[in-house]
Amino acid sequence: MMTESQGSRAFQVDLRGLVDLLSHHLYSSPRVYIRELLQNGVDAVTARRAIDADAPGTVLITAVSDGIRIDDSGIGLTEAEVHDLLATIGRSSKRDGLAAARQDFLGRFGIGLLACFMVAAEIRVVSRSARTPDAATVEWRASDDGSYTVTGARTPRAEPGTTVFLKARPDAAEWLAADRVRELAADFGSLLPFDVGFAVEGAEPEPITDRPPVWERPHPSPTARRIALNAYCERTLGFTPLDVVDLTVPVAGVRGVGFIHPHATSPAQRTRNRVYLKGMLLTDRAEDLLPDWAFFMACVVDTDSLRPTASRENLYDDEMLATVRDALGGRVRSWLTSLAAGDPARLVEFLGVHHLGVKALARHDDALLSLLLPWLPFETSEGGVGLAEFARRHPTLYVTRTVEEFRQVAPIAAAQGIGVVNGGYTYDGDLVAALPRVMPGVTVSALDPDVVTASLDLVDPDVELAMSGFLTIARARLDAAGVDVALRAFHPVGLPALFLDDRAARFERDRAEAASDADDLWSGILGALQQSGPRARLVLNHRNPLVSRIAGLGNPDLIGTAVESLYGQALLMAQRPLRQADLALLNRSFLGLLEWVTGDHREAGQ
Ligand SMILES: Nc1ncnc2c1ncn2[C@@H]1O[C@H](COP(=O)(O)OP(=O)(O)OP(=O)(O)O)[C@@H](O)[C@H]1O
Predict the structure, then answer these.
(1) Counting C-beta atoms within 10 Å of the first and last residue's C-beta, which end of the chain has fewer, N or C?
(2) Closest approach atom of ligand 1 to CA 91
(3) Measured in whole angstroms, how far is the alpha carbon of residue 249 from the centre of its chain?
(4) Which residues have CB under 6 Å of ligand 1?
(5) What is the per-residue pLDDT across 474-484, written as a single tens digit (0 to 9) for each?
(6) Interface predicted TM-score (ipTM) of this complex, two decimals
């Protein structure tokens, strides 16, 4: 036999604790209480319209002296429903019935009314059910200590529907002040499908709903529509858009528009996407609604296919959200396609600001890559030409891994007719690598210095022999910097010297520098890493008149200083970060040359 202590009992709920939990951990701000009230009013009208299509559909919020009241012409509640639904946390009438019918409602969790305790000390609901013609008006009065009473109302309602009264909590009165209530109601409720109004007690109500939304309204012309949408974007998102993208995808249950940011945006910066769920504002910072690559856009959409989280401040991350995200991504893609076909000037303007986002997208989308290839900016050995055009001219393309490598070889490659693309910028290397997929016949290889060296002509052995004295001085001067000197003939003639190195040579130079600065232990370890491998090379251009003149100078000291200057100039051309030792060398050679020019050296040497 079961003893009494073993029998089943009902849970007790500490209402204050629960409200505390809601306000601190579920909702971002008490402001959402208005949304919960509006939502219940709208759902009640929806339920009534399901049994009586001609029933009135109004929700009116009124600011009264000690709080607010909200009247709806909805389905109302019987006394039994009041006990069952209002007094049971987590109970909702909106989960009953067919799935299709459930979809019509905004609420589902049975906690919405509780949110009102974040701002109210007392909630009073006066309701008359529309289900039975002679239903009594019932009054439910609940206090934030968790107690409630149900009575017959003193004054019966003439019509079915519900009135909810909130009596302000002294510490939350600001949330129930008339101006605040009007502002919140307009923010959450402007697109609701029924007539929502706001009034200060005793005054005429003003409309809150403003439908259809700007993007669905008829406009006299496309320009008028654009002006209206720009104004809407300025008002709600705070910027004037570069362009507007239509995001209405009926099969995905989404209607809305995307606004292109007028300035470059970072992928790390969360865009402000405003999402309405069946006309009720869910959030103005929805994440995951747009694909990550669309960070150049903020959107405003109304959807009836997505589900909210329990806080109703974000979207539930399910397969439907993924489908909608793909559909919206598709719309952005078609917008880009139509720009490319019909308004290239605007496309260029857009890419000028957002090419990074587009490149990120094109990496995984060959169709888009081939479409936008003519417009996407790349740096090539022939300047900033379109990649498609460049690849047509150079079916064998070379791509550098870093910006420095590009700087180093671009001038010489251009002179030799080698096509080199700078793959050092974000996404560019990936996109160039994808080129053969969208331009069959094009091959892409990574550029290493040998490709360039191979196109440098060897100098006649007799000439080299005649210049051996000069070369010996040059090699001796640059040996300490870890650089070899070679003599070649190449174009452009105006380029006196070319600095060539690769990763291994760079590593070796950095290691040597670190070893010379390090204490004994470290220099021992770094010394063990020493490579006898490749050294960087300074390639002097025999065709360059300056190099010939330097080689012809009689004074070894002056030759050495001039070679150091050529090395310094080649380093600067390569735009690589200068090491301490390079800076010292540059400084020395510059001052040395000045001394020669001003005659100090000559006098001292005489
Ligand atoms: N204005 C109203 N008219 C008629 N019934 C109402 C009204 N407000 C609340 N109810 C009833 O009370 C129930 C509980 O409301 P509550 O707001 O707590 O939860 P919900 O709206 O069902 O779900 P959610 O927590 O998702 O908002 C509702 O399911 C509904 O049946």
Answers:
(1) N
(2) 14
(3) 22
(4) 36, 39-41, 44, 72, 74-77, 85-86, 92-94, 107-113, 162
(5) 999 999 888 89
(6) 0.97
